[in-house]
Amino acid sequence: MSWAYLNNAFHRKEEVTISPYDRGFLFGDGVYEVIPSYAGKPFLYEKHVSRLLRSLNEVSINKPEQWENLKSIIEDLLEKNKFSNQIIYIQVTRGQESTRSHAPDKLTSPTLFIESSELTTDLLLTSYKPPYINVGIEEDLRWTRCDIKAITLLGNVMTLDNLSDSGLEEVIFYRDSTITEGAKANIFLVFGKKIVTPPVSNNILSGITRNYFINLLSQNNFNIEEREVSINEIEEADEIWFTSSGKVLQMVHKINNKIILEKGFKNTIGHKAIELFRQDILV
């Protein structure tokens, strides 16, 4: 039996319901956050919650009534769901209104939903190897506020749905010939000994795991640079990674069925990055 939290109470997951008049359901009017938890401890919790607050402020959604109790609610939920490693999902919508109207009522109370599920990971195993994925390349036709972690992800969903028939698991988005990010993650490219990632902008989410790896690698004297990357540079890359809270670091094996990196993980910079991460969370 698994549990979730809605507004002011815990519920069994199968019993959680919301009104169809919730603006999240009607308009996708809401934001969300995803936090990994290892051995019962949410990872980079304060940074995730800070980004959630930024998203709320950017779209002018009020903080939920239980905002000050958020951490204790999450701790209780992790305890209830018992898994050693969990992925926490937090969603805040503008709330329920009596009539469907594009213009929201300023006094509407937000809806707070939190769930957690088992995070299946081999990260703690001595023999850990990061997953290799096959990806595609697509023009980025999403809205131009990808810096807001909004629940309106139809562009991402459509892209991944179209790619799935080809056995591709992620996409490299580009806009005006410049790489932005993936549909589910941020992107890093390695050229020789230099690690490059596109700078955050309104077209790119400021990934918590992305920023974590930038700081971690910089502190360990890796040459890392935030700059715009042309789509034409992909063929010159020695390694390409995607980073996210749920998957941590995934290495690209093929792009549109062209091999980028053979599955020899141990001699890569990606291997060194994941080992630094493992050392950090195992402390």
Q: Which terms summarize this structure?
A:
283 residues, alpha+beta, D-amino Acid Aminotransferase, Chain A, domain 1, D-amino Acid Aminotransferase, Chain A, domain 2, 2 domains, six-stranded antiparallel beta sheet, 6 helices, 15 strands, globular
Describe it for me?
The chain has helices at about 25, 45-60, 70-80, 155-165, 210-220, 270-280, and strands at about 5, 10, 30-40, 40, 85-95, 110-120, 130-140, 170-175, 180, 185-190, 195, 225, 240-245, 250-255, 260. By secondary structure, the protein is an alpha+beta fold. The protein has 2 domains: about 5-120, 2-Layer Sandwich (D-amino Acid Aminotransferase, Chain A, domain 1), CATH 3.30.470.10; about 130-280, Alpha-Beta Barrel (D-amino Acid Aminotransferase, Chain A, domain 2). Strands 7, 8, 9, 10, 11, 12, 13, 14 and 15 form a 9-stranded mixed β-sheet that branches. The protein has a 6-stranded antiparallel β-sheet with strand order 2-1-6-5-3-4. The chain is globular.
Topology record:
Layout: E1 3-6, E2 9-12, H1 23-27, E3 30-38, E4 41-42, H2 45-58, H3 70-81, E5 86-93, E6 111-118, E7 132-139, H4 154-164, E8 170-175, E9 178-179, E10 186-191, E11 194-197, H5 208-219, E12 223-226, E13 239-244, E14 248-255, E15 258-259, H6 269-281
Parallel strand pairs: 7-8, 7-14, 11-12
Antiparallel strand pairs: 1-2, 1-6, 3-4, 3-5, 5-6, 8-9, 10-11, 10-13, 13-14, 14-15
